[in-house]
Predict the structure.
Amino acid sequence: MATEHTYPDTAAKTAAAALPDEFHPERMSLSMGPSHPATHGVLRIQLELEGEVVRKADPVVGYLHRGDEKIAENMTYNQFVPYTDRLDYLAPLANNVAYTLAVERLAHLEVPPRCQAIRVIVSEMARISSHLMGLGAYGIDVGALSVFMYTFLEREKLYTLFEELTGARFTTNYTRIGGVARDVPEGWTERVSAFCDQFLPILDESLALLTRNRIFQDRTVNIGVVSQAEAIAYGLTGPNLRGSGVPLDLRKDRPYSGYEQYDFDVPVGSKGDCFDRYMCRAEEMKQSVRIIKQAVAKFPPGEWYATEAKKIFPPPKDKILTSMEELIQNFMLVTEGPQLPPGEVYFEAENPKGVLGFYIVSKGGGVPWRLKIRSPSFCNLSILPKVCVGAMVADVVSILGSLDFVMGECDR
Amino acid sequence: MTTYIDVAAALSAKFSQAVLRASRDHPAFNVPAGQALAVLRWLRDEAGFEILRDVTAIDWGLERSPRFMVVWHLYSPAAHRYVRVAADCASDAEPQMPSATELWPGANWHERETYDMFGIVFSGHPELKRILMWEGYPYFPLRKEFPLAGLPAELPDPEVAAETKEKVQAAPMAGGPFVATPGETMSGAEPRARDEAWSESSQKPT
């Protein structure tokens, strides 16, 4: 079977046609993954190749399916928070916040400004850590090994801060319906601020290793181009959508958790190729630093949980241990779950990987009737059959890295 | 800018069978399954809801008929608003819904997932097959009668199954502490209340 090539002239085309059959590449089927370093987890892509050119790409997902939606129907709202850690496990804090905000929409509950500020800070820190990981891994994918060392060191510092705040580095389980698990420790915001200050020069240094690097540009510029219309039609979100030049960011468009108070820009690309997506992520980290610095500068005093929500957030521990009423209240919350009204809500938050949505159908009480997780990685990957066709096998690696997906979130 | 009232009024003027649906946040409509595609197309082309954010389904349980409901969430990038459209599947035994893949190619995977989890067949879908579970899996896990523990099933690979004579096992932790089904109270599902009956209401198992 002959491949459609572009030939320099008709003589070359005739010469190619005159070649014996064994010189024409046959269609070959290649299974990439599920255990392949470039697929960042357990994604398998069934490729059909003609020589090095991809003719068909069929992603096979579901290797990490754990039935999170089924699990959510069988436990209280607070018990599901640890499961959200394991969606996008590179940004668990952002998932915690998105889920909690969705449930609070159902209760029509507003948390105090301090709690909102904490949530904004941790979300943006999660964004930085997720993009650092994405950037470092992308560097490795396209052959720049050393960037990973720089970004991983920074991510490590962030994880130390997460550990101080939540007690865990990875599976943070930090938010609760109506608040957070605990207030920020003494001096933590200053340490966050100090991290931001030293981070920006190092980020610039890491980006300088890539952005104008000839090899990196050869691997990314004009590779995996997604047009504006395609990005919208396939439901792409996050840096992948903005890389195609669509300036949609829920933090700006539908501000939640007090994002309207902060001054930041939304970076957009122009062409929608791998390089644009990379640049969007790189710039987003700088914007996240801006947001964090503003949030730290005007970190509000006061309560860090919704005090008036008696059937949703438990009372302080010292009261539980000394007062009968608070003890009963805590007991009911632990056994029955936060009591929420019947109804349905759909809430989306701008997460590092894209828009993470929760659709909650409640019949009242402490357990959701249905909880649907709209995961950005799942939607972003659905464009693969479109964008991989015509690319070389090595470009598939570059495209995958630039989409920056997480299979834990895709498969749920 | 399209407002809540505008979408609601315009939609019900255009489609007489579309009725407002109870919602705690965004405007929501119930439409008949036959009209669902026309409503979605109108919302996309005329009302500015250009982005399909999510397609999913709800199983209302065995006691309710129609049992399955498909829900679409659309987003308007100009007005920064959402709209929710819901349609009941006529048949409980063989639920069906027209596919929105001709409007949004991104609906493809969402509909495959909904089929995979609920068994709702989207007519007109180019390649309706399982996506999260493997091809040949016999159950639809998000249906309410499917137990949390799962059910044993054949291994996906017939060669491996013939060699090992193993099946896919149900989850060993199922029915653990504080696992309640919707409608059941959490304290009723607590292990002491359930198996180790030292309460007056239930007998201690022998």
Remarks:
- Residues 6 and 13 of chain A are 8 Å apart (CA to CA).
- The first strand of chain A starts at residue 27 and ends at 32.
- DSSP finds 18 helices and eight strands in chain A.
